[in-house]
Amino acid sequence: MPSLPDMNTPNVEELAARAAKGQSHDPHLENVELKPAFFDWLCRMGDSTLILGHRVSEWCGKAPALEEDIALANTALDLIGHTQMWLGLAAEVEDAGRDADRLAYLRDAMKFRNLLIVELPKGDMAQTVMRQFLFDAWHHAMLTRLLSSTSPRVAEIAAKALKEVTYHLERSSDLVIRLGDGTEESNRRMRHALDILWPYTGEMFMTDSVDEAVAAEGIAPRADELRTEWVETVREVLDEATLDLPKAKADAQKGGKSGRHTEHLGFLLAEMQFLQRAYPGAEW
Amino acid sequence: MYAQMVKSEGGDAEATPEELAFQARIDRDEKIEPKEWMPEGYRKTLIRQIGQHAHSEIVGQLPEGNWITRAPTLERKAILLAKVQDEAGHGLYLYSAAETLGVSRDELLEKLHSGEMKYSSIFNYPTLTWADMGAVGWLVDGAAIMNQVPLQRTSYGPYSRAMIRICKEESFHQRQGYHIMMKMARGTPEQKEMAQDALNRFWFPSLMMFGPSDKDSVHSEKSMAWKIKINTNDELRQRFVNETVPQAEFLGLTVPDPELAWNEEKQGYDFSEPDWAEFFDVIKGNGPCNRERLATRKDAWDEGAWFRDGLTAHAEKSAKRRAAARHAAE
């Protein structure tokens, strides 16, 4: 288990409570020059939680144990909740008459900004668990940093999401350890999952002009600043799970953050967006 | 809810003094708790009924799970996820209640997978459009509530307490289902068409959820004496129709039953019986989705074996390590 930072800092609860209202004044929303980068960065957050939430929800009713059905649905539900907040703020920043639903349901793949790792098919439970862990370790580090964002709105959303993601990371770390250090078969599957996913992990830490623009305003850390903490968490958990850190290149697969995706995303969107596309303008 | 045709185990032999005392407790509305004496027939009937209910909850995840990835808005997706998660939770309470009667969850699952135990026939019907998410919440959960509300007073303590929790969540499910129907019924012509079509397909299968007519229901008497069953199938069905018809009218939808008419004398609706031949056929395994539903659950279980084995192996290793560490410390 990774040692998790103290969550009881006094302002987290308060920040989280304000996220639901979404009314705090945020000077960054008036910064016209920043708008495209800020919008893109918010879409990266919201699209990653949306697409991962979708993949996790595919397990509904099909998990290996009833407790897992409940936990997976709960995780997916949290991630969809985060999506509503991130894409809701993205729509406000963009100020072009769209809302979170229009962003989720009416953009095509090239406009999506999620990390590639979240759009890969769910695979078996080993891949689902391993991906969740690799993502959670990043997600947790990112949200923790965002608590001190110069954007009050971003800090509020992070505070609300971090409470849930702390639990996600605890759960996924725990499962990685138990399955890695379980039977020969569970160990083999976890190694295999790690090999498949590893080349997609580097994208989390690639800093581009969007990251630099929001980092310059103190809204978010540069992507590469999270790497050390992530590696530490991952190494500690994999070690306890009796799994080796892969030697393969971690950054072989990339492009999601700027809209260049795998073949999988198009099918996912075709499914997710079906009703909105088939019945334009209908209310549900 | 979700218990149809549960065979009751009451014998015809003359009651023993213990059985008489047990029945007297039930008649006084006392709750029976897990470690107390109970007739074997009571225990077995309860296992069947609670087990069937639990199986219905977990198989019941599938028809709605079918639409989670296609839910039309983020909010609808979140609500549907929460609802399906509740159902898995209900399954968990109910398997736990059954465990207090001396049967493990794994044993019950084996019986589900082998076809020895059933789940509610309603989940063998497909969910074809988004309106079905509305119809399932409104009608299927509505029928479930009709059955479950009286069961909050059932004689077996753990079952009764599970029902109290479940009923709270089910009424939220029914409201969200009705809300979907309202949006659809007042939406575009295509949405209205989907809503009507969903009602057409789910009306009679929902009426079947209460089980066969009292005159053909052979297992009721003993279960009612034991307060495992509180109302007869026909009573509950009538109550459901009386409540649901005005709701359909409010939506501007037509209940697909030309015989439906208000009967002033009985202060209730007259309505057509469902097609019982279809009901028995679905129970036998010939419904549109029987094979798929069961195969999905069985595959999930079989393909998850390595996962469960891994966790068990880790727990055993950890226990050994702790024991070794204790040993070394001594």
UniProtKB/TrEMBL annotation, chain A:
It comes from the Bacteria. One of its GO terms (biological process) is phenylacetate catabolic process. Pfam families: PaaA_PaaC. The lineage of its organism: Bacteria, Pseudomonadati, Pseudomonadota, Alphaproteobacteria, Rhodobacterales. One of its GO terms (cellular component) is cytosol. This is 1,2-phenylacetyl-CoA epoxidase, subunit C. It comes from Palleronia marisminoris. Signal peptide: none annotated. InterPro entries: Aromatic_CoA_ox/epox (IPR052703), Ferritin-like (IPR012347), Ferritin-like_SF (IPR009078), PaaA_PaaC (IPR007814), PaaC (IPR011882).
UniProtKB/TrEMBL annotation, chain B:
The keyword Oxidoreductase applies. It is an enzyme of class 1 (oxidoreductase). InterPro entries: Aromatic_CoA_ox/epox, Ferritin-like, Ferritin-like_SF, PaaA, PaaA_PaaC. GO terms for molecular function: phenylacetyl-CoA 1,2-epoxidase activity. One of its GO terms (cellular component) is cytosol. The keyword Oxidoreductase applies. One of its GO terms (biological process) is phenylacetate catabolic process. Keywords: Oxidoreductase. Its EC number is 1.14.13.149. Transmembrane segments: none annotated. Pfam families: PaaA_PaaC (PF05138). This is 1,2-phenylacetyl-CoA epoxidase, subunit A. It comes from Palleronia marisminoris.
